[in-house]
């Protein structure tokens, strides 16, 4: 089961990296979303895949029964999802604004902060 | 968006969704649910209202600026953690009181006030982003991100 | 939990039952107070004047709390508090040792200086937009990163400061800022995602996220687990955050676009968080693997120094020039990590402390110079020495400090690093430190020559929309205080050298750190492994 997940995560990462290598911000955004999901799956798998027994101590016992799911990776994923969700919302607004202001989604043409023909510093008085 | 159907349904839908979001918030205490998902539902309720009647109508309806709502939520959450300084227990320890209303014992905790804060943070932040996106493109529309 | 009457369980196995001394709260209060102040400022976003007052009060409180924490740590050793009274490693622990506490204190001082400077630099629209709330959240993230004892929590604080930095970066929504912010946002987000991947693997290997617990277990797992790969992933992620070569190109693309106060905060604080995390993870948690990868780190460090220095020499815009100086400093700190002896790590820590103050000050100097002379570029600046001699003297002090020339604070970390690299025979690393310092001296010397000494014909053009009177306390106080610090620790380096040495020794042998998180383990076994 872990091996299957490893392959799946690998595919996710490959697709994410491919999209991130694009020049267009919208594709890069999709790449970032995929990357976030790949990491979430990775975290899920690192907690070992088990049967879906919820990690709740039954009444009358003082420790977990055997074979329960590991709750910690799920907490980590939940945090990571919340964070990546808010980042995605921010980036969505930012790319939209960038497209409005700069008139392009091609990062090669976004040269406002680093102009192509930048002046050299003066060589003397 | 100016369809009659949406404009008729939107107020009802918004009210129902806001109510449901509070139900989800309170249910999150011992069952699936909670502040984050409740806040998301409430934010989408306001987003629907915004689609139907425009961003200005939403801003009027919620009275406070969305970021101020988020700030209030963050403040409540932080205070819920800081209260434990007076009880000699570490930061963010859940503290409980059991007041009785009409012969019903209602357990209240800093956990609930923390979750209420989360609800407001999510509601404020997501609403502010949604409104920024719904606004008609103009020279100065943004300024509410993050 | 809902009803008080349940089956009796042994709570001492899971919870902290002893009452917590009030002094332990010093670990949590800096972060909590910053979040509370940030929230308060978000609520009063309309009243522009009130915001400044609240924010400065909050930052002053942060300085006091961090100073108290540092004092506590110096006297009693590392301080730990767990969230929600759950025992470590299950509860998230905040642990402050000397390294974290001293970094937090210096960051707070610098943030206070920048906050006061911001009173003139950030106008009403910038405040309504939320400069001060974002500043508070940034400081919450920075302080949290320095004080947390849990590696996933470190990731969370990285994200907190990242989202606050996004807000600060696009504070005027000018097209140039949006261009810079887009590159900064995407590359930094990828960097933190790499960090998260590394944390995931770390959890898979160790089954714990508590740093003290990891430090305890690293020795036993060394034969079986792929720890070198993991360390390489961590180094790559942190190098990206710290803007080390070859992943440094986002910094010159974005750091010169926002308001100058924002640049100052970023240049002083954000890259140093990457260095802090690098030192914490590679030196304290995975020292053997760091040793294996030390050549790779050293090469990256040397190239970072040289690229930074040469880049600074090639810039016309003084903000970009300072950006490259930040990069060159990162190279020096990474050299300390690469060598890895306690002396070298103490040099890196000292350099980081010095760099936090100097780089912030240099950006503020750049802003003030541009305000006085009406230009950002070396070809436009001029005549500053005649117009503002005291300001020129302060600038000169920072230039000396940044170049590492005696007698100012910048020299000592370079001396410590040089000695450490010569001690292990890495002559080429020592040479690159010297060459980089020499080139930086050239670049800054030229700035002083052109912008300060060169006479400017005719009245200087004014920067639009900025009309603070000369000698405004909001400019004099922060620059004066930072000058004082730089001169003081240049002339009297002994206490700081001593402090960083102790910090580095505690990192090399984290027994006190582990003891502070797991006091019960020491009692059980009599002594620590």
From TrEMBL, chain A:
It is a multi-pass membrane protein. InterPro entries: CPA3_antiporter_subunitC, NUOK/Mnh_C1-like. This is Na+/H+ antiporter subunit C. It comes from Neorhizobium phenanthreniclasticum. The chain crosses the membrane at residues 6-21, 28-45, 75-96. Belongs to the CPA3 antiporters (TC 2.A.63) subunit C family. PANTHER family: ANTIPORTER SUBUNIT MNHC2-RELATED. Keywords: Cell membrane, Membrane, Transmembrane, Transmembrane helix. It is found in: Cell membrane.
């Amino acid at each position: 089961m872990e091996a299957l997940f490893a392959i799946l995560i690998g595919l996710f990462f490959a697709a994410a990296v491919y999209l991130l290598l694009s020049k267009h911000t919208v594709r890069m955004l999709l790449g970032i979303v995929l990357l976030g999901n790949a990491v979430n799956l990775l975290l899920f798998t690192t907690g070992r895949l088990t049967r879906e027994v919820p990690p709740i101590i039954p009444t009358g016992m003082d420790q977990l029964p055997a074979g329960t799911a590991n709750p910690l990776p799920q907490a980590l994923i939940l945090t990571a999802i919340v964070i990546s969700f808010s980042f995605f919302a921010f980036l969505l607004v930012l790319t939209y604004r960038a497209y409005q202001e700069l008139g392009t989604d091609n990062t090669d043409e976004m040269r406002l902060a680093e102009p192509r023909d930048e002046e050299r510093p003066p060589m003397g008085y | 968006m100016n369809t009659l159907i949406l404009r008729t349904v939107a107020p009802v839908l918004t009210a129902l969704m806001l109510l449901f979001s509070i139900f989800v918030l309170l249910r999150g205490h011992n069952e699936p649910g909670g502040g984050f998902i409740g806040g998301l539902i409430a934010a989408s309720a306001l987003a629907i209202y915004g689609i139907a009647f425009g961003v200005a109508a939403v801003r009027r309806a919620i009275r406070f600026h969305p970021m101020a709502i988020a700030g209030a939520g963050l403040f409540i959450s932080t205070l819920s953690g800081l209260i434990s300084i007076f009880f000699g227990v570490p930061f963010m320890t859940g503290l409980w009181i059991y007041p009785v209303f009409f012969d019903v014992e209602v357990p209240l905790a800093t956990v609930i006030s923390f979750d209420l804060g989360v609800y407001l943070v999510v509601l404020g932040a997501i609403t502010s982003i949604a409104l920024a996106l719904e606004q008609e493109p103009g020279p100065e529309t943004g300024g509410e991100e993050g | 939990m809902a009803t008080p009457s349940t089956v009796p369980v042994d709570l001492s196995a899971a919870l902290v039952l002893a009452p917590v001394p009030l002094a332990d709260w010093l670990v949590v209060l800096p972060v909590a107070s910053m979040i509370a102040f940030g929230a308060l400022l978000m609520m009063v976003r309309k009243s522009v004047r009130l915001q400044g007052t609240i924010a400065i009060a909050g930052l002053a409180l942060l300085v006091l709390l961090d100073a108290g924490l540092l004092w506590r740590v110096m006297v009693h050793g590392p301080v730990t508090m767990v969230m929600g009274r759950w025992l470590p490693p299950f509860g998230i622990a905040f642990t402050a040792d000397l390294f974290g506490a001293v970094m937090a204190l210096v960051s707070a001082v610098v943030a206070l200086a920048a906050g006061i400077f911001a009173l003139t630099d950030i106008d009403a629209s910038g405040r309504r937009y939320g400069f001060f709330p974002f500043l508070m959240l940034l400081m919450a993230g920075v302080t949290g990163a320095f004080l947390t004892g849990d590696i996933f929590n470190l990731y969370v604080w990285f994200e907190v400061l990242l989202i606050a930095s996004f807000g600060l970066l696009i504070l005027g929504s000018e097209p140039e800022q949006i261009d810079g912010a887009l590159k900064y946002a995407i590359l930094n987000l990828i960097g933190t995602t790499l960090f998260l991947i590394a944390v995931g693997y770390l959890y898979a290997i160790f089954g714990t996220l508590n740093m003290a617990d990891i430090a305890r277990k690293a020795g036993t797992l060394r034969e079986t687990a792929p720890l070198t790969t993991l360390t390489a992933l961590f180094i790559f992620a942190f190098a990206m955050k710290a803007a080390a070569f070859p992943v440094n190109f986002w910094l010159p693309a974005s750091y010169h676009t926002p308001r100058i106060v924002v640049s100052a905060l970023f240049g002083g604080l954000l890259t140093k968080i990457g260095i802090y995390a690098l030192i914490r993870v590679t030196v304290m948690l995975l020292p053997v693997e760091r040793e294996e990868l030390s050549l790779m780190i050293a090469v990256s460090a040397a190239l970072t120094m040289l690229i930074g220095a040469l880049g600074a020499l090639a810039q016309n815009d003084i903000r970009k020039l300072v950006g490259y100086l930040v990069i060159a400093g990162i190279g020096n700190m990474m050299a300390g990590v690469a060598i890895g002896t306690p002396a070298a790590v103490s040099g890196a820590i000292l350099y980081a402390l010095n760099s936090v103050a100097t780089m912030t000050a240099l950006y503020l100097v750049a802003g003030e110079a541009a305000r006085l002379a009406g230009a950002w570029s070396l070809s436009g600046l001029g005549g500053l020495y005649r117009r503002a001699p005291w300001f020129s003297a302060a600038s000169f002090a920072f230039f000396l400090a940044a170049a590492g020339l005696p007698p100012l604070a910048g020299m000592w970390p370079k001396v410590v690093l040089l000695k450490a690299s010569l001690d292990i025979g890495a002559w080429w690393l020592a040479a690159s430190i010297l060459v980089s310092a020499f080139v930086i001296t050239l670049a800054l010397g030229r700035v002083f020559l052109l912008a300060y000494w060169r006479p400017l014909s005719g009245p200087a053009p004014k920067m639009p929309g900025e009309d603070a009177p000369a000698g405004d306390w909001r400019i004099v106080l922060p620059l004066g205080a930072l000058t004082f610090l730089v001169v003081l620790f240049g002339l009297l380096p002994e206490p700081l050298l001593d402090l960083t040495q102790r910090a580095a020794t505690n990192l090399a042998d984290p027994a006190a750190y582990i003891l502070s998180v797991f006091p019960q383990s020491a009692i059980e076994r009599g002594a620590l492994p």
